[in-house]
Amino acid sequence: xxIKAIVRTPCKNIVNGLTTENLGRPDYEKAxxxxxxxxxxxxxxxxxxxxxxxxENFPDSTFVEDTALLAPHCAIITNPGVPSRKGETVEMNEVxxxxxxxxxxxxxxxxxxxxxxxxxxxxxxxxxxERTNSTGAQQxxxxxxxxxxxxxxxxxxxxxxxxSGVSYLEKSNLVVSSEFIENPQFQNHNLIKVDQEExxxxxxxxxxxxxxxxxxxxxxxKAIEKAGYKTVEIDVSEFRKVDGGLxxxxxxx
Length: 253
What we know:
Elements: E1 4-8, H1 28-44, E2 48-52, E3 68-71, E4 74-77, H2 88-96, E5 103-105, E6 117-120, E7 123-128, H3 134-146, E8 150-155, E9 166-168, E10 173-176, E11 190-193, E12 205-207, E13 210-214, H4 218-226, E14 230-234, H5 237-240, E15 251-252
Parallel strand pairs: 1-2, 4-5, 7-8, 10-11, 13-14
Antiparallel strand pairs: 1-15, 3-4, 6-7, 9-10, 12-13
């Protein structure tokens, strides 16, 4: 069960955020409203939400998930794979000192976006991607192993981050899309398969028996509910325009 979540209010500069999509620039005012709805959804799941001020120096800074991995016995400050995001970790390091006794750090030449790290039960999967390199992955593995956690790596082919295509809903249930549907590392779990046209919805978030899901993907919503979960739909259209998803917008612990 989660108790707290850390989020950061979008800055006006989000309109200049990184993107691989062709959906246009986000509407700042609409993004603010959607973010507020996201915060209320987290509160509705029983979480205390710690809201950080917007940071105009970093267009993508609302996507706090990439800056740190929060594990049971430590917090790991990452080293984002895009130079324009590296400074986001400085303040996050100070924030997490209030909540974690053990703070670890990923160091150059290793790069890690925590959106590439998925906890499945007691195991952590680390995606090797354009944002997370092998050196960074090895540092993550070394740290997690030190705290008694098991790890495995997955080389990504088509998705930006590992969590763009797979999410863990506890109780051995995985939401999977595209390249992960047939991945042998996931075949021992119950797979909730997402159709290609709804692949964005594969990035969903389990929070205390509820599942936050992007609005507008009825097939995926129905499949998750059929698996026994109550879903909470949230419109995140403006964050999708800058490569963001539901999990990207918070650090939950």
